[in-house]
Specification:
This protein is 51% helix and 9% strand. The protein is α/β, with parallel strands linked by helices. It has a 7-stranded mixed beta sheet with strand order 2-1-4-5-6-3-7, sandwiched between helices. β4, α12 and β5 form a beta-alpha-beta unit. α5 packs across α8.
């Protein structure tokens, strides 16, 4: 197999490792007397080490070479894979080109890397054939995706021809997607060397179950109703969640993501200083077969900050229509997002502002662009006690209920009042100190 003969499958984060193993294997099987055995030995040991490191990062088990090849296939965004995630069954020349590449991958799946060990008289790849993990989850994929990749590796190894190989891969793309958007649920924005925005996966997302959030049933229903309409292709609104700190706004967002990720929901977290890049970000996702929520946490602006003007144009007001697969969800402690002065309300001129009412309208116009506004207020004593009991039970905290609630009451008086966040911090304190 020669990697430079691949047509579609040429881009991969670990392409260097793929080419290194391919080169070593080809040299070992051809047994060229001019082979530099010392260099090949170093490269082989290094490649086996990289495979093992990947196993630890992703949680792979079994034949690491097959898992690695499958990772290549499910990560490569090309004309065939992207088309397959949108449509079941691609025909014509694209199919034939894909089968050309898949035939080469079938050859690679048939390789026994222990032949490298025998040729070089080393023990490097023998440990990668039936690798057993440490029992801890890999950090780069959720368990569901990881299991599907390992299952697909076994199926691809057993594929009888390139046609069957193609059906297996197109099925994966259809069901799970391809590349970073198919394999990850959440993303952040970074900049490349030229200042262009890059959408980068967040590999560790806190698992929050919506059902575990107590005392905000109405808020959760508003949020899920809007999100389900969005996922079903019906009309849906941008959402602003506002209210007191620690009352479940950010946790609700994580719960929404975890619940609806299998239905094609993806989330991109963006910060205020990155708003000028929103149009570039949307351009990268508008033609993908996923539903994207662009999420802005703790959104607010002071008088001198003007980044909200970028946001206003994107949400509603610019000439270009926002794609149907993109919504914006934001959380804030402020109902109107932009700092307001008492003088604004009293129509008192400030800094020679001749049109104070226009100033007020400018500040309110951003909040008005969110069609759904959900208020999160502090819980009462009864609700706070129920939140404490629920979190304690969920974490297996064994403590007399009267003592638990009495200590929780003391804790909230010292730490900012009653809220879900304060309740969780109290339980963490108990787990870490009182009942360790």
């Amino acid at each position: 197999m020669r990697t430079d003969e691949l047509i579609l499958y040429r881009e991969f984060d670990y392409i260097g490792l793929f080419e290194k193993i391919t080169e070593i294997y080809n040299k070992c099987t051809k047994r060229n007397p001019e082979n530099d055995l010392e260099k090949m030995t170093r490269d082989a040991a290094e490649a086996a080490g990289e495979l093992t490191e990947l196993a630890g990062s992703y949680g792979f088990e079994g034949n690491l070479w097959h898992c690695f090849l499958t990772l290549f296939l499910v990560s490569s965004e090309n004309a065939f894979s992207v088309a397959s995630e949108k449509k079941d069954g691609i025909g014509g020349s694209l199919n034939e080109i894909a089968k050309h590449d898949f035939g080469m991958f079938m050859e690679a799946f048939s390789w026994e890397l222990e032949r490298i060990d025998k040729y070089l008289a080393i023990r490097a790849f023998e440990f990668t054939r039936d690798y057993k993990g440490s029992g801890t989850d890999g950090s780069l994929f959720n368990r569901r995706i990881l299991e599907r990749i390992c299952e697909t590796a076994v199926k691809l190894e057993a594929a009888s021809d390139s046609e069957e190989f193609l059906k297996i891969m197109s099925g994966f793309y259809r069901d799970y997607g391809v590349g970073k958007f198919g394999l990850h649920k959440a993303f952040r924005i970074e900049e490349d060397g030229n200042g262009k925005p890059l959408i980068v996966p967040i590999t560790r997302v806190k698992h929050v179950d919506l059902d575990d959030l107590i005392g905000i049933e109405l808020q959760k229903k508003q949020l899920t109703d809007n999100t389900e309409a969005f996922l079903a292709g019906r009309r849906a609104n941008n959402v602003l969640m506002f209210g007191d700190a620690g009352t479940g706004k950010s946790s609700s967002i994580k719960g929404i993501l975890n619940r609806y990720f299998p239905d094609g929901l993806r989330m991109i977290e963006i910060y205020r200083h990155q708003f000028k890049s929103i149009n570039d970000i949307i351009a990268q996702i508008k033609n993908r077969n996923y539903k994207f929520i662009i999420y802005m946490d703790d959104l607010s602006f002071e008088d001198e900050e003007t980044e909200y003007k970028y946001l206003k144009a994107v949400i509603e007001g610019g000439l270009e229509k926002k794609p149907d697969n993109v919504l914006i969800y934001a959380s804030s402690n402020r109902r109107h997002l932009v700092h307001e002065n008492f003088s604004d309300k009293m129509n008192i001129s400030k800094d020679d502002d001749l049109h104070a009412s226009d100033t007020v309208q400018e500040k309110l116009s951003l909040s008005a662009r969110f069609g759904v506004k959900i208020y999160f207020g502090r819980p009462g004593k009864k609700e706070f006690d129920e939140i404490v009991r629920s979190i304690a039970e969920r974490n297996g905290l064994k403590m007399d209920e009267k003592e638990l609630l009495a200590e929780a009451n003391k804790w909230e008086l010292r730490n900012g009042g009653m809220s879900g966040r304060v309740a969780e911090q109290f339980i963490d304190y108990c787990l870490g100190t009182v009942h360790k």
